[in-house]
Design brief:
With 196 residues, the protein is mainly α. It contains 7 helices and 2 strands; from the N terminus they run ααββααααα.
Length: 196
């Protein structure tokens, strides 16, 4: 079902932020943003005959705010690296229409895999990778709209599939980050035991 991964992951995050984490201003802010994304994900608006999901617009404002806090040089770097990921997202979306592999492997998994591989090459910082993924998905969705609109196909910008891809990619990236930290701590512990 379209958007099921996004809804489940969002409610798990809400549960974690409400019951398992300490209440701070930052966690309350994250909690409110996630709840707003869940509520607004069901609604779209028409802007100049372009159908856009309201949660997608909220994500644009959020990532724009985060990028505006960086220096101009970093903003340009983020734009270019996000453009690379966005083009990859758009190409994989277009290929999945005709590619027989998409009948066996879910399109979301293929997109997430390629975006994570690119992120691993583009940055070492976890938070920079998150920004690149979000920027890339925003730009890639605009590329998809332009492509599908050129063939007179009705395309909703930022639909629930887009949010599924975003949350699945972030989950995979977080899992890789956790495993990397876990194995580095384990190898450090083993080195200390070998020295003793």
């Amino acid at each position: 079902m379209q958007g099921s991964f996004f809804i489940i992951a969002s409610w798990v995050l809400v549960f974690v932020l409400m019951f398992l984490r300490e209440r701070t201003k930052l966690s309350s802010l994250y909690l409110s943003v996630i709840l707003i994304l869940i509520i607004c994900s069901a609604y779209t608006i028409d802007v100049f005959s372009i159908e856009i999901n309201i949660s997608y617009i909220i994500m644009i404002f959020y990532i724009s705010y985060k990028i505006s806090l960086l220096s101009l040089r970093e903003q340009i770097i983020h734009f270019v690296k996000g453009l690379i990921i966005g083009m990859t997202y758009s190409v994989v979306t277009l290929l999945s229409i005709y590619d027989p592999a998409s009948f066996f492997i879910d399109e979301m998994i293929i997109k997430s895999f390629f975006m994570i591989v690119l992120c691993l090459f583009l940055s070492k910082s976890y938070y920079a990778k998150l920004r690149y993924i979000t920027i890339g998905l925003v730009q890639g969705e605009l590329f998809n709209y332009i492509t599908f609109e050129s063939i007179d196909f009705n395309y909703v910008i930022g639909d629930l599939n887009w949010f599924d891809t975003l949350f699945f990619t972030i989950l995979l990236l977080s899992g890789i980050q956790y495993l990397t930290k876990y194995f580095s701590k384990l190898s450090l512990k083993n080195r200390k035991l070998l020295k003793n």
